[in-house]
């Protein structure tokens, strides 16, 4: 507006002044000259001397307020005073002339100078805005045109806008339309289908180019925003998700986050997740997917042993119209956890084993199993140590329980074997089972007597049928093998023991069958056999030494002095016998022994007790004093002999002593007694020797005689022989003959025959 106003004013002034001027000058300068640039020499062109310049006061005046020019007063050159911008002064008009009034005084003259301002290309084309946004649907068809603002260029003519250029791109091309008024209007034309998902924004640069030389240009940035259409289905990041979940994971555990991407924009890319429409109900109960986040969780704990894998589809749907959807597949692998303890099964229950079973005898069959897999299900079976059993693996997870060494029921009648199965999981799970194996008895132990040798002492004369001794044997075996029968073994020679004792076969009590007489038998031995009922039976024996102890069952028997006519013994004694004279000596014996046979002699009664005494131990009867001249010629003594037994047994002997006159005993005093006794004894021995020799001689004669008879009979018998018609005479020979064959005893037999 201002430019236009100035221009109007100028034209007005110019018209007024024009009439008063005679000549006019015209200069042509380009715009934008520097200050001080010479436009032209006004003085010279007006024909003025240099002196006139100052004398006539040459000066210039401008119509407008602004002085674009100045005058050099020394040489009269018109100079550019201020930079002249054509566009400011004249706008788009094709010509631009600045009038300058030149004034000279004396005389006053006006000259009109026109300075034609030539356009130079000092303005670039420009757009109203630097940026321009265009929204284009990605479904827009090719060929569609989009109108753009034309560029402006302040310059005129050839310096004004001449053409447009668009940066090279594959989607849009430039088309310039010439409007009716000659304005060049740029348009962009879609030449290739858009894809927002490929490129949602296209940046284009439109350049307006003028016709100057050099040309100037101006640009605007065009932003083409591609609007979304729901032309993309959601796509999962992975077609297949492999998920590993340990069994027994808590319900609610997120096992996977699936993600689908929808290349579209806005609601077209908003995704809802769900399980595939054909998912079985069972899987729907186990798995849950969050429709917004795509988090896959488990609704229940998974059990590896029930199923180790699950496969299903997940669907992603966008919210565009129409709805588009995508799918992916999920494979859930359940990882085993050691949550099952091994199980021990006794497939064949243990049988009782005889104790003599050889090592390796099978006792039971055992089976282990573990529902877990891999190492968690790898079970090892162990047996409690210190048992004579071992496990023998048969085939996978089957074992035979066999004996490992010799058994002995007497030490261990049964075994409680602990079987322990443990898997290789971490931590391992363990289970155990108790197997009881009983050991059967075998008759491997003989009965054993409580003592090696029994010694018993019995009194003689005990009643038959009383218990002599009781032996007991025990047998470590059991049942029939331990049932013992006692018996008495007969000795091979002599009187069989079984004839005087018998044994209770069940309890081992030995009974007597007789009463025993110590005086006949002092000791005997019973061999007792204990035999069990096993098969084969086992036995052992022991010896019972039975010692018979003496009882005082025998009264003393008087062997001297000999008694005739009852129990009276007659002794003689001389009246002249002095004190201490040995009248007689009573000698008794007792069949018992020990103190039962210790004898004591005592004078029980006497005609004159003051005359004789009896030695308590020796039984010697001696006079205590000399016999009185007129005393009785006959003395009767009753001597009692007692033993030391319990009860005491005694006997008596009556000795009659006849006191004779004048009979002189050769030994009358005690000191000579033993010599006399010795002599008497020697005499007796001599007598006995004579008798013996006589007897032997007689026997020899008899033997000789018999031999002669024998030889006679023998030869006679040889001659006649023994025929069937044996006569009594011959028979006599035969009877005599038979014992003769038996040797020397035959002789005696012959004699007696
Ligand atoms: C089980 O354990 C044994 C001994 O440790 C080993 O030899 C075997 O290979 C294992 N088996 C499995 C299936 O792991
Ligand atoms: C053995 O048995 C007999 C007869 O039954 C009995 O008299 C005896 O006292 C028993 N012996 C023992 C030691 O029990
Ligand atoms: C008694 O036992 C011993 C071994 O203790 C044996 O030598 C003997 O033959 C047995 N006697 C009998 C008669 O069985």
Your description of this structure?
This protein folds into five domains: 2-118, Immunoglobulin-like; 131-335, Cadherins (Immunoglobulin-like); 343-440, Immunoglobulin-like, CATH 2.60.40; 448-549, Cadherins (Immunoglobulin-like); 557-678, Cadherins (Immunoglobulin-like), CATH 2.60.40. Helices cover 15% and strands 40% of the residues. It is built from eight helices and 49 strands. The chain has a four-stranded mixed β-sheet. Strands 8-14-13-10 form a four-stranded mixed β-sheet, with no helix packed on it. Strands 16-23-22-19 form a four-stranded mixed β-sheet, with no helix packed on it. β20 (287-289) and β21 (295-298) form a beta hairpin. α6 packs across α7 and α7 runs antiparallel to α8. The structure holds 2-acetamido-2-deoxy-beta-D-glucopyranose (3 copies). The site of one 2-acetamido-2-deoxy-beta-D-glucopyranose (NAG) has 4 residues, from loops. InterPro entries: Cadherin-like_dom (IPR002126), Cadherin-like_sf (IPR015919), Cadherin_CS (IPR020894), Cadherin_N (IPR013164), Protocadherin/Cadherin-CA (IPR050174).
């Amino acid at each position: 507006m201002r430019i236009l106003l100035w221009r109007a004013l100028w034209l007005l002034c110019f018209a007024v002044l024009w009439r008063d001027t005679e000549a006019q000058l015209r200069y042509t300068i380009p715009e934008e000259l520097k200050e001080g640039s010479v436009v032209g020499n006004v003085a010279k062109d007006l024909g003025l001397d240099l002196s006139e310049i100052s004398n006539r006061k040459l000066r210039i005046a401008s119509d407008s307020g602004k002085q674009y020019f100045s005058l050099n007063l020394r040489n009269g050159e018109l100079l550019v005073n201020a930079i002249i911008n054509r566009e400011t002064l004249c706008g788009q008009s094709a010509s631009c002339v600045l009038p300058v009034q030149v004034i000279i005084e004396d005389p006053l003259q006006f000259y009109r100078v026109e300075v034609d301002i030539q356009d130079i290309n000092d303005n670039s084309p420009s757009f109203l805005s630097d940026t321009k946004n265009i929204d284009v649907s990605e479904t827009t068809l090719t060929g569609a045109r989009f109108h753009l603002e034309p560029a402006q260029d302040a310059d005129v003519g050839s310096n004004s806008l001449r053409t447009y250029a668009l940066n090279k791109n594959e989607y849009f091309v430039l088309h310039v339309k010439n409007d009716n008024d000659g304005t060049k209007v740029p348009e962009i034309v879609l030449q290739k289908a858009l894809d927002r998902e490929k490129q949602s924004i296209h940046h284009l640069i439109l350049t307006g180019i003028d016709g100057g030389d050099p040309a100037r240009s101006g640009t605007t940035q065009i932003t083409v925003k591609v609007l979304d259409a729901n032309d993309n289905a959601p796509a999962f990041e992975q077609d297949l998700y492999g998920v590993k979940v340990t069994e027994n994971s808590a319900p609610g555990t997120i096992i996977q986050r699936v993600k689908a991407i929808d290349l579209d924009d806005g609601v077209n890319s908003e995704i809802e997740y769900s399980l595939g429409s054909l998912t079985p109900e069972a899987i729907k109960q186990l798995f849950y997917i969050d429709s917004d986040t795509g988090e896959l969780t488990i609704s229940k704990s998974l059990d590896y042993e029930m199923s180790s894998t699950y496969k299903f589809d997940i669907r992603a749907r966008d919210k565009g119209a129409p709805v588009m959807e995508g799918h992916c597949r999920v494979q859930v692998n359940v990882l085993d956890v050691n949550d099952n303890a091994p199980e021990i099964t006794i497939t064949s229950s243990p049988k009782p084993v005889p104790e003599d079973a050889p090592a390796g005898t099978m006792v039971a069959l055992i089976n282990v199993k573990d529902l877990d897999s891999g190492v968690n299900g790898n079970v090892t079976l162990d047996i409690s140590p210190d048992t004579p059993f071992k496990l023998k693996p048969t085939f996978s997870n089957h074992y035979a329980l066999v004996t490992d060494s010799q058994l002995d029921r007497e030490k261990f009648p049964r075994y409680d074997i602990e079987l322990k199965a443990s898997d290789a999981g971490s931590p391992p799970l363990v289970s155990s089972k108790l197997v009881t194996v009983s050991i059967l008895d075998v008759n491997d132990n003989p009965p054993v007597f409580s003592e090696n040798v029994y010694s018993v002492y019995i009194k003689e004369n005990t009643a038959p049928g009383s218990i002599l001794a009781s032996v007991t044997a025990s047998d470590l075996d059991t049942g029939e093998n331990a049932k013992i029968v006692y018996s008495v073994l007969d000795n091979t020679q002599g009187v069989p023991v079984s004839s005087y004792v018998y044994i209770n076969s069940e309890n081992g009590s030995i009974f007597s069958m007789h009463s025993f007489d110590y005086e006949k038998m002092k000791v005997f031995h019973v061999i007792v056999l204990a035999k069990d009922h096993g098969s084969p039976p086992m036995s052992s024996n022991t010896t019972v030494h039975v010692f018979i102890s003496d009882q005082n069952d025998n009264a003393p028997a008087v062997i001297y002095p000999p008694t005739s006519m009852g129990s009276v013994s007659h002794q003689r004694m001389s009246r002249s016998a002095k004190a201490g004279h040995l009248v007689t000596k009573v000698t008794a014996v007792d069949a018992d022994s020990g103190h039962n046979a210790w004898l004591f002699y005592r004078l029980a009664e006497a005609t004159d007790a003051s005359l004789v005494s009896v030695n308590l131990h020796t039984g010697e009867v001696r006079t205590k004093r000399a016999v009185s001249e007129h005393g009785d010629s006959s003395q009767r003594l009753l001597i009692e002999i007692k033993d030391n037994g319990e009860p005491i047994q005694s006997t008596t002997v009556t000795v009659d002593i006849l006191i004779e006159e004048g009979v002189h005993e050769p030994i009358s005093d005690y000191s000579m007694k033993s010599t006399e006794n010795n002599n008497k004894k020697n005499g007796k021995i001599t007598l006995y020797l004579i008798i013996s020799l006589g007897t032997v001689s007689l026997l020899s004669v008899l033997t000789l005689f018999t031999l002669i008879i024998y030889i006679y009979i023998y030869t006679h018998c040889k001659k006649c022989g023994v025929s069937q018609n044996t006569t009594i005479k011959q028979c006599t020979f035969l009877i005599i003959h038979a014992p003769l064959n038996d040797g020397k005893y035959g002789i005696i037999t012959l004699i007696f025959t």
